[in-house]
Amino acid sequence: MTDQHLRPSPISATVDFEADGIQHGFLRLPYSRDDSAWGSVMIPITVAKNGEGPTALLTGGNHGDEYEGPIALFDLARNLHPAKVQGRVIIVPAMNYPAFLGAARTSPIDKGNMNRSFPGRPDGTVTEKIADYFQRVLLPLADVVLDFHSGGRTLDFLPFCAAHVLPDKLQEAKAFDFVKAFGAPYSMKMLEIDAVGMYDTAAEEMGKIFITTELGGGGSATAKSAAIAKRGTTNILRHAGILKGEIDVQPTQWLDMPSGDCFAFAEDGGLVEFLIDLGEAVEAGALIARIYPTGRTGAEPIEIHAKMAGMLVARHFPGLIKAGDCCAVLAVAV
Ligand SMILES: [Zn+2]
Asked: Residue 1 C-alpha to ligand 1 middle, in angstroms?
């Protein structure tokens, strides 16, 4: 996919990825605009390196309104002692930094959705330039990639860590070992609605061990969801052999998304009433939600039924829904 003849990335790092010790710096992306003629987007980055060993690339804020990752990674960046590292940790707490500052899923500069922009372009939009830098500079440095997500402002999830079913079964098995080590309350064999353009896919196609999360949602983090993210990050670094110490083993419920029947989309907008909450089980055909037309009283609601038996693992958030929105996601316990 990557064109050999692409121009170099316009992004320059103020950190040296090969230097031992800990460095806090920036990925500086030139961005000329009304309020800053020769200005830049300054994406915070931390690199901690000590001797030889594997590299973990840890990212949050791929979507700007998902907060567990940024909380865990800003916290890790100030607490990580390079002498305790064996190998290298690269931390980017807010990957789509303009989206993060805008508290939005996509970038306010170009409306770019980072997780639909890979492999990116060095001569593209701001979001595409960031994606290209990850594609051609940061991902090749990594052995293990952990990318944090949550539901953002329009979804809410049961807290889970996830990996994908892959054609390379050894790569897949290693990824699921990392999911287990992360120790979220739920662990998911994840199915994507459309995997094209995702960071996940870019990393996996490069042969990297890639794991991700969905740890909550609604456009904020809770004490519980932030704690899951922090513990999971440490566990991943320990499982990789980058940090010493025992993995803080937690009980987890494994879940599978066996087919597209997992997803239920709204075919019309309105006021949504869920009949079950996250973590509750339904039989196939059961009523999951009603969507009331908001224009008049006396109209019948649209009903959302389960296309398969399963547990509600994600739901629309907050109270109003539009045609085409993802209303509910089911998964099965394994
Ligand atoms: Zn996300």
From this structure: 24
Please identify which residue in the block is written with the tokens 């997803």: 263
Q: To the nearest whole percent, how much of the chain has pLDDT over 90?
A: 96
Ligand 1 centroid distance, CA of 67 (Å): 10
CB 315 within 8 A of CB 328: yes
Residue type, 109: I
pLDDT tens-digit readout, 253-294: 999 999 999 999 999 999 999 999 999 999 999 999 999 999
Measured between alpha carbons, how far is 320 from 316 in angstroms, rounded to an integer?
A: 9
Q: What is the torsion angle, in degrees rounded to the nearest 10, for the CA atoms of residue 187, residue 85, residue 119 and residue 259?
A: -10
State the distance from the centre of ligand 1 to the C-alpha of 228, rounded, in angstroms.
Answer: 16
Express each pLDDT in 168-183 by its tens digit. Answer: 999 999 999 999 999 9
Question: What's the 62 CA to ligand 1 centre distance in angstroms?
Answer: 6
Q: How far is CA 253 from the centre of its chain?
A: 20
Q: How far is the CA of 84 from the centre of ligand 1 (A)?
A: 30
pTM above 0.85, yes or no: yes
Neighbours of ion ligand 1 (CB under 5 A): 63, 66, 149
Give the pairing type, strands 209-214 and 160-164.
antiparallel
Distance from residue 28's CA to the centre of ligand 1 (Å): 23
d(CA 68, CA 66): 6
Q: Supply the DSSP symbol for 239.
A: H
Q: How far is the CA of 108 from the centre of ligand 1 (A)?
A: 16
C-alpha neighbours within 13 Å on the C-beta side of residue 73: 29
The first and second tokens of residue 67, run together, are 């907060």
